[in-house]
Amino acid sequence: MNSTIIRGKLRGSAVPSFLQQKTPRTSRRPFSSTSPLSNWLAPKRGHNEKNRKGRPRMRTGGSTKGTTVVWGDYGLRMRDHDRRIAAKQLQIALDAIKMRLRGQRYRLYTRVCANIGVYTSGNEVRMGKGKGSFDYWAARVAVSRVLFELKGDLHEQIVRDAFRLAGNKLPGLYEFVRKGDPPVMGITKVEAGMTLEEMQRPKLKLPMDVTAGRMPATTPP
C-alpha cells in the first residue's frame, strides 16, 4: 500500500471513513412558524389543471367580505362590475404605486391573487382539438372588492395620486377608500341607518295592476 499519512490524512488513496472529519448537518431553511413567502401573481401548484373561464363570485347572501380596508389606512376598491384582471396588469399597477411613493416609508398589502390560468388557441385555428395552451395567469375580482391597501405616515393626497395612477393602469373603474368607511353589499353601501337585516329582507311584491301600469305603451289605457 503506497500511502503515507501527512497531518492526519492519507495520500495516494481514498481517505477512510474513520479519518474523515464529520461536519454537522445544517438545515436548508431555519425553523419558522410562518409560511415561506409566496408569489401572489402565480400559484405554487403550476398550471397542471386547465381552469374554466368562470365568473367572479357574486355574494348574494348579504356578505360584505373583502369590501373594507382591514390592515392598512387607505385602499383601492373596484366600483363598476366584476372582471378578470391579468397578472401582468396587476404588476404594472403595483409598479406605478411604488414609483409614485419612491423614497417614502410605507407598507403595501395585496388583497387579490392571480390563481386562474388563461388558455388560448392562437389566431386562425379551427374549432376543436382541445382547450389550447397556457397563456397567462389572471385574478377574478368581484365588484366592490379591495385590491390594494397602504399603511404609512403619508399625506392622503399623495396616496390618492398613487392609487389614481394604479387605477389608470387597470381595466375598470375604481374608488379611493379609507379605513372605517362603510362596507358594500353588491353595489350598495351599508351606510348609517341601514342594517344588513333590512337589505337581506325580500322586496315587497306589488299587485299585477301596478306593475303592468309601468310598462310603456304606444296608446294610453
How does this structure look, described?
The structure is a single chain. With 221 residues, this protein is an alpha+beta fold. Helix content is 18%, strand content 23%. The chain contains four helices and eleven strands. The chain has helices at 87-100, 156-169, 196-200, 208-213, and strands spanning 4-6, 9-11, 74-78, 83-86, 106-110, 116-120, 133-141, 146-152, 174-178, 184-185, 188-189. The strands form four sheets. It has a four-stranded antiparallel β-sheet with strand order 5-8-3-9, covered by helices on one side. Helix 1 runs antiparallel to helix 2 (156-169). The chain is extended. The protein starts with a strand and ends in an 8-residue tail after the last helix. Residues 1-10 have low confidence and may be disordered.
Strand order of the largest sheet: 5-8-3-9
Report the sheet with the most strands, covering strand number, pairing sense and barrel closure: 4 strands, antiparallel
Amount of beta strand = 15-25%
Our measurement of the CA-to-CA distance between the termini, rounded to an integer number of angstroms, reads 120 Å
Number of helices: 4
Specify the helix fraction band: 10-25%
Strands, count? 11
- Class based on secondary structure composition and strand pairing: alpha+beta
Mean pLDDT: 79
Order of helices and strands: EEEEHEEEEHEEEHH
Pick out the low-confidence regions: 1-10
Rg (C-alpha, Å): 29 Å
Note the overall shape: extended
Task: Give the SSE layout.
Blueprint: E1 4-6, E2 9-11, E3 74-78, E4 83-86, H1 87-100, E5 106-110, E6 116-120, E7 133-141, E8 146-152, H2 156-169, E9 174-178, E10 184-185, E11 188-189, H3 196-200, H4 208-213
Antiparallel strand pairs: 1-2, 3-8, 3-9, 4-7, 5-8, 6-7, 10-11
Helix pairs in contact: 1-2
